[in-house]
Amino acid sequence: xxxxxxxxxxxxxxxxxxxxxxxxxxxxxxxxxxxxxxxxxxxxxxxxxxxxxxxxxxxxxxxxxxxxxxxxxxxxxxxxxxxxxxxxxxxxxxxxxxxxxxxxxxxxxxxxxxxxxxxxxxxxxxxxxxxxxxxxxxxxxxxxxxxxxxxxxxxxxxxxxxxxxxxxxxxxxxxxxxxxxxxxxxxxxxxxxxxxxxxxxxxxxxxxxxxxxxxxxxxxxxxxxxxxxxxxxxxxxxxxxxxxxxxxxxxxxxxxxxxxxxxxxxxxxxxxxxxxxxxxxxxxxxxxxxxxxxxxxxxxxxxxxxxxxxxxxxxxxxxxxxxxxxxxxxxxxxxxxxxxxxxxxxxxxxxxxxxxxxxxxxxxxxxxxxxxxxxxxxxxxxxxxxxxxxxxxxxxxxxxxxxxxxxxxxxxxxxxxxxxxxxxxxxxxxxxxxxxxxxxxxxxxxxxxxxxxxxxxxxxxxxxxxxxxxxxxxxxxxxxxxxxxxxxxxxxxxxxxxxxxxxx
Length: 504
Known about the structure:
single chain
């Protein structure tokens, strides 16, 4: 029994967060008085009387069932409830919510959480306004915890259904099964030579600059990597993901620069690590849908600057055959620049269904782009090659626009990616697009997740995807080199890389 309750802590924390998101309603009625935690598979239903209870001891005293469970579990229930309901909420939570009220990101998070939490009393308010007001009241009245929040939320009762967590887990498995089957049937690429994989450790120079762009009120912060030896005159731009920074991908840039490329790594100020810090500090709202346009515009502005001689002046760099590499949201931007057209059609029809079998965490972000989706088609004909790693893409893009891409695209997805899972966000979109006939490729990284394929500047190991990225760009930009994608030798011994394009 002790072990059972201890193992439930992590799940309850997740459920607590979901319930925190889900219990906001409109109207002026009495606060929630009862919370039921349902674990149907274990035939456990625990009812908590919230009225008047400010501490764990008071909750247990008011609930006979809890008394029995606490005795049987040698106090495990008390410890669990203390972590679940009465532990202090993170500082600034109230400010973060206040700045997020009505924002599409919050609305989608509330919608996703609604499947986990059953509500009686009032219809859901996905704006988060009532939730924000209740949390502010809890802080103001000296109860800055989940229990204090629930005691101030209007409604009758709510329950947390752990059966829903099992459905989420199955959905996650389903969203990875096809990719894992394709990897099992395919053949991993031969590992890259050690000398090539480690070539990014030297042979480049690094600088940090600020560059003004017309569509933003503040300049872009850019990391510039240039080859110490002979330059091939080609330009690569690397775009980071949501709430990330250029340093997370500098390992890719160093390897490219060491092999002749000039590399720019911009920080996208409306959705970078600094913006996340401001959000968590309660002084900024989540990224706006406007960033869907601004990110590819950032990249095009850099190409404009190089072309005009305002950026990288004095260097002989061609921008008419540039390459773009991106991770997560940065990969989405790379697809926009490559010529895929964005549309609101699927966003309108699928974003409001919390039980959609393809729904995944990336849809929270994708659905927040709804208001800007029809203005996101921003192809840049100067981009001739793209490597896109884990792009959220299923809902955003018009699949019929695939044949019109002017850039050759290598899409990479990890079989263990639960943020942007491979089946709905990579395998399915490419199946209907005949990628091999059009010169595009899908590589699956066996065991790859959303966070182990990147290449931080301080990483000691050679970048997993570095040789493959170099091989793809060499081939697509016709750079004289023995290291090409079709030539092989760009794999990895730790994370097998499998080209599954021919199996789609």
